[in-house]
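Dear H.,

Thanks for agreeing to be a second pair of eyes. The structure we're designing against is below in token form, covering all 407 positions.
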């Protein structure tokens, strides 16, 4: 029975998170620790080879996090740094580590938008779902990870339904529109160039079409086919990537949402002198900082774009206590499920032993009721207390005493 007593909280306590986000690091620091799709896949494959109980990688413009079931969170730190080619000392200067219920609570806050740079921003949810799918494909989602993730999706849905945490359209992609409308007058006829046509780029493209009618919108991407397809879908203009320099020079507004690992917009692109607004929503940043030194050009990075929205989120902030109550209630449900799973194993083992005892010593095939009573009493005891060894022994003793008294 001693082994059983160590299993109750094993998965829960071994659930760990190692990460870095906007709270402790600026965009430049986050860029060093961001994980590309290939790096994320490689990390998951290494986690699988190391036989971690489960692993999930979430890397966005605001955070890079590794979730996993392990004996020591440092295992996740090593995986993280090895796959970002960074020094552990640099990571540890900016990182955070959670385990057990603190890790579960963090996961729930991430999924529900409570930990987003713009509180209530649900763009993270689709990114989380994509990360889950990749983890499943690699084989890094065990039963506990699946359950924890399912609870996070459940809590996210409940918070969105029962609170006003996501009231209004406030996201980084929409913030870009608000900034353009605020800083650029007479948008009709202005040339807007979107660089990067991934999922985030699609959000921006949709907002450009919906909220900036009259602008001349162009799309470009390293993969020309993707940009061409998006341009057709939104009835916009397609710019071959080899023409990026001239397109930047022609543009009045440039938005980058590329996953490129080096600068894609550089000073030499700009030959003509005119006012330009550049929104660099990429991590790592895609616009060379030297561009901001050019006359009549304003460059805002993703942190600066996000901070402009602070004035719009006061109503959402007021909803945080309601959302946290939902999270706490859901954590209680997860704990109850986990407790039941651990207890169920003990109950089944005791039940099996009772049947063996009955067969060996009492030879009573009609003794089902006595066994059922002993097992039911054990289930009730385990639900309210956590002392499996004594309680399982008590169940066996109770059964034996009952039989000796009636024999």
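And this is the sequence the design step returned. I haven't edited it by hand at all.
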């Amino acid at each position: 029975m001693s082994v059983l007593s160590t299993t109750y909280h094993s998965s829960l306590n071994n659930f760990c998170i190692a990460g870095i986000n906007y709270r402790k690091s600026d965009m430049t620091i986050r860029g060093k620790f961001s994980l590309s799709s290939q790096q994320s896949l490689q990390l998951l494959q290494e986690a699988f080879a190391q036989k971690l109980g489960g692993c999930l990688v979430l890397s966005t413009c605001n955070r890079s996090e590794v979730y996993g079931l392990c004996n020591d969170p440092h295992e996740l730190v090593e995986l993280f740094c090895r796959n970002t080619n960074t020094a552990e000392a640099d990571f540890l200067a900016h990182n955070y580590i959670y385990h057990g219920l603190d890790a579960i609570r963090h996961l729930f806050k991430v999924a529900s938008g409570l930990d987003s740079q713009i509180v209530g921003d649900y763009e993270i949810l689709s990114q989380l779902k994509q990360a889950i799918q990749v983890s499943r494909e690699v084989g890094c989602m065990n039963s506990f990870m699946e359950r924890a993730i399912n609870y996070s999706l459940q809590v996210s849905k409940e918070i969105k339904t029962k609170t006003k945490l996501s009231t209004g359209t406030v996201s980084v992609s929409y913030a870009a529109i608000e900034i353009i409308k605020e800083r650029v007058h007479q948008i009709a006829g202005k040339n807007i160039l979107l660089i990067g046509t991934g999922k985030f780029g699609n959000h921006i493209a949709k907002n450009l079409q919906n909220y900036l009618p009259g602008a001349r919108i162009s799309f470009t991407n390293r993969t020309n086919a993707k940009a061409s397809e998006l341009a057709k879908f939104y009835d916009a203009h397609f710019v071959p990537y080899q023409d990026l320099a001239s397109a930047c020079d022609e543009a009045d507004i440039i938005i980058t949402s590329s996953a490129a690992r080096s600068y894609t917009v550089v000073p030499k692109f700009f030959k003509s002198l005119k006012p330009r607004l550049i929104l660099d929503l990429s991590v790592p940043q895609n616009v060379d900082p030297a561009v901001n030194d050019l006359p009549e050009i304003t460059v805002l990075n993703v942190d600066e774009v996000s901070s402009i929205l602070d004035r719009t989120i006061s109503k959402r902030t007021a909803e945080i206590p309601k959302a946290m109550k939902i999270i706490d209630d859901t954590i209680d449900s997860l704990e109850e499920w986990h407790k039941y799973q651990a207890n169920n194993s003990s109950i089944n083992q005791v039940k099996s032993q009772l049947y063996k005892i009955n067969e060996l010593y009492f030879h009573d095939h009609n003794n089902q009721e006595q066994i059922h009573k002993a097992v039911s009493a054990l289930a009730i005891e385990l639900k309210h207390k956590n002392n499996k060894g004594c309680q399982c022994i008590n169940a066996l003793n109770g059964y034996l005493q009952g039989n000796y008294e009636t024999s």
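Two observations from my side: The radius of gyration is 28 Å. Confidence is low (pLDDT under 50) at residues 1-9, 387-393, 402-407.

Warmly,
E.
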